[in-house]
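ARCHIVE CARD
Drawer: 12
Card no.: 0347
Subject: one protein chain, sequence and derived structure
Cross-reference: see card 0346
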Amino acid sequence: MTRRRVSALLLTLAVATGGCTARADSETVSRTSASDPSGDVIVAGPHLGDGQPVAAPQDTHTDIVHTIVEHRADTVAFEVRFRGLRPNRYLDLTADIRTDKTGSRAWQFSALTYNGEVQVDLYGPHGSKCPAASTEYDYPANTVRMSVPRGCLGDPAWIQTTVTAASMTYEASSPARHAEAVWEDDAGQDGLTTPAEKRTGPRLHHP
């Protein structure tokens, strides 16, 4: 299941990871840290009401509660903590990365896992792949870490990001109304209560 398929099933509400931590106004900002409200997952699907997203506060697997993004010397790193990750369940964690070299377009860095299998992809303006990109799932800590070398992004001077998690269920015991449903949480958006406009966070500069 690709990210494009997931996006087709859900009206994506994308908001930036925000809340940068700056050492001083005159110094380079290379790290951002943001908390996200617990219980703000939304779900949508063809068999759920009129197909429009509705709140799904009971879902913990998709529920992002804290995100850290760092523009390091050689890599761009993400650490995303969830309310309650569930091993073997489908999860697609995607970071859109805009840089000084991409213009209005963005790289899409995606880590997908299901039943222990992991797939990491980097899609960019030129369709590039990055074998050195990596991800780590720390289920006891409810945390996913992703890292991509700066070279795969064209060695940018700065980056701006959004982070979104999406999940689906394939269990035979799942209710029929959950067929093709997608649960989603944005790292900076409070469920359905904030505007559905795409915003990016602060520019994180190469240190």
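Annotation on reverse: The chain has one domain: 3-205. Residues 3-205 form a domain with the Immunoglobulin-like fold (CATH 2.60.40).
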